[in-house]
């Protein structure tokens, strides 16, 4: 599946088992295009997908910081990521 590299990754269309690798690849693609602010939409649900995303972000060398989005950006159903230049 071809994804637009626009700084927002919506994981609703993907299986949870694909999430960690997809997040890493998407962050690399954003960084290559100079996008250093990324929003990952994982939904609220049980929190399992959010924890998978957070674990992938902790391991990714380009991630400077991450945290939940504000209420206008999805609240705890989305994570905002800042990449190192």
TrEMBL record:
Span of domain Smr: 9-84
InterPro entries on file: Smr_dom (IPR002625), Smr_dom_sf (IPR036063)
Protein name: Smr domain-containing protein
